Amino acid sequence: MSAFRFEAVDAHGRLRQGLVDAADARAARDRLRADGLTPTAVDAAPSRDTPLQRTRLPAASLALLTRQLASLVQSGMPLDQALVAVHEQADDAPARKLVDAIRTQVLAGESLPAALSRFPRTFSPLYRGLIGAGTETGRLPEVLTRLADYLDARLALRQKFVVALIYPALVTVIAVGVIAVLVTYVVPQVVSVYQQSRQTLPLLTRALIATSEFFRATGWLWLGALAAVAIALALAWRRDRTRERLHRALLRLPGVGRLAASLDTARYASTLAILVGSGTPLLRALDAATGVVRMLPLARAARTASALVREGVSLSRALKEQKAFPPVLIHLIANGEQSGALAPMLERAAAELERDAERRLAWVAALIQPTLIVAMGAIVLVLVLAVMLPIVTMNQLVR
């Protein structure tokens, strides 16, 4: 969606100016007419990339800001006063400047979604779309509360994911560094003492010496090769076809694939739940929810399901035909369609999928940690044996 600057006349003949988010100028005019305004001019808003617009708030700051604004608006406080209160409660300077800029635009006559569209690095299209839906339906306090819950849940799940994987990552980095120092510097110094004895060294020791000499002689070549591979992967990652192949391979991995699918499907279901619960039409909600799916095979399946729903197929049947989504999501959606409570069923499905993702994450982390310890222990054992075997051999010769 793009931002359009408009001039319009309301029902009382007063001139209104501001920004509106829409796919094109025609959609912007239709949206203004739906709001009871008669557009007189609609032009693409110039993109002035100011330092404030380049500011990106951390996820934790955005979640806290949304929660505070939701609590204040839900208490009945006017939006401009609520923005003042949030500005005063903000802990960091970027958040205060951002809230102050939003309040300035709101006081100038812009709608809240239009003011948020000036800062696309912080407020995603989904965020602005939800605020726009709440503004249009008169349910902004409820939508803000749902959005704050959504952001808090995403942040909590991300923190669990990081905490579960930070220990294996640190162990791997430290172990690789220590082993590299041992192989390229420490071990050759120790083994050189044995070489001076002119005794035939054990095969394991000779293999370690040859490996150490090889890496010391070709170290810069390996670094250059790693840099070239990293650049090639970065360039290939920009191609949708390459990313889809990698995502498809990842989804086929045992354990990890189900974890990635559960995380993506939970994100899809929770986004769809908050959109439907805020009064957004189902087709528009499906298009927006598809945008948060990161795994390209699942995103393709979601787009195909959305096209089927547009043709009149029920959502549960459309998702089932893709054979890419967990059965729990499909069954709960079908139950929600039959009972007329689609949003609560989507929230229940999202909660169930998040719990499943947490269980799988704990299982993967529990499997990775001992595997790393055993692998690093085996490497260290080989190094120790390569150093100690010549000593054992010399002792036997002395006897």
Q: Helix share of residues?
A: over 70%
Question: How are the strands ordered across the major sheet?
Answer: 2-1-3
* Helix run count: 16
Q: Structural class, judged by helices and strands?
A: mainly alpha
The average pLDDT is 80
Reading the helices and strands in chain order gives EEHEHHHHHHHHHHHHHHH
What's the alpha carbon Rg, rounded to whole Å? 29 Å
Q: Could you tell me the strand content as a percent range?
A: 5-15%
Low-confidence segments = none
Main β-sheet description: 3 strands, antiparallel
- Give the total of beta strands: 3
Shape: elongated
Distance between the termini: 84 Å
Characterization of this structure:
With 399 residues, this protein is mainly alpha-helical. The chain has a domain of 46 residues. The chain contains 16 helices and three strands. The protein has a three-stranded antiparallel beta sheet. The protein is elongated and about 105 Å long. The N and C termini lie far apart (84 Å).
SSE order and pairing:
Layout (H helix, E strand, L loop, with lengths): L1 E8 L5 E8 L2 H10 L3 E7 L14 H16 L4 H11 L3 H15 L4 H5 L8 H13 L2 H56 L7 H15 L1 H19 L2 H13 L3 H22 L4 H9 L5 H15 L4 H8 L4 H13 L2 H57 L1
Antiparallel strand pairs: 1-2, 1-3
